[in-house]
Amino acid sequence: MKKTSLLSTITLITLMGSMTSCKTQEQIEREKKINTMSVQMQQSQRLNADAISKMQELESSIAAFQGQMEEYTNGKDQKVEELQNKINKLEEQNTSLTDEVTKLSAKIEEQDKYIKEVIALLKKKDKQRRAKAAAKKRSPYNEAMYLYGKGKYSQARPILEELYKAGKIKGKSRDRINHNLGMVAYIQKRYDDAITYFSSLYTKKPKSPYNANGLVYLARSFEKKGQKDQAIAILQEMLKSFPKSRHVPAAKKLLARLK
Predict the structure, then answer these.
(1) Can you give the pTM of this predicted structure?
(2) How far apart (Å, rounded) are the C-alpha atoms in residues 112 and 107?
(3) CA 196, CA 222: separation in Å to the nearest integer?
(4) For every one of its 259 residues, what pLDDT tens digit does the chain have, with 9 covering 90 and above?
(5) Which of 194, 212, 215, 234 pairs as cysteine with 185 (C-beta 3.0–4.6 A)?
């Protein structure tokens, strides 16, 4: 009985030792797992701490950047405002300058107009002075022809009449005086005087070259007085006496109209 009890005791102790040994192995495995998990957790915590630190740094950087942005924006707005003020001042200066230029242009235009008027007046006076000086050098005959050529018939007429009455000038020059007196009379609508001068020239100098044109205007003078038949007869005489004259086309045209 004592042996059995001792054996049982030994067996129990052995089993207990074996059981104790088994729990210890599980604990070891568990502890290993716990340690591993602890290490992993610590690593995770470190990583999390690092991430938090980095996030904080990033937040600080963002805050600093936002501050810089606000400062830049405020500074930019201030610069924009300053630039706009400068632009406004420049626009005001430009407007003022434009007004001054406009006023100056008006003054220049007015002065230019005045200068042109003065120059025109000086030229006119100089021309008159030269004309008077030239007239003093010209003979009465040349002066009369000069005035007639310029279309100044009223001024030429008294000189021509004086020369005609004096009778000192002879030949073709007198024929020219006679012809021009007839033309002046026709232009001034003194048709009776025109008929007298042109008729006198043809009667006294039938072969004078001035008669070619003189007869055409003699016919025109009769036409103006309503004496159509006399005008036709004179034109026919002109074409017969001066068939090669440059005044033939005008005579033929007038004759065709009268017939």
Answers:
(1) 0.51
(2) 8
(3) 11
(4) 444 444 444 444 444 444 444 557 766 776 676 666 666 666 656 655 665 666 666 666 666 666 666 666 666 667 777 777 877 877 787 787 787 778 878 878 887 788 888 888 888 888 888 877 776 789 999 999 999 999 999 999 999 999 999 999 999 999 999 999 999 999 999 999 999 999 999 999 999 999 999 999 999 999 999 999 999 999 999 999 999 999 999 999 999 999 8
(5) 194
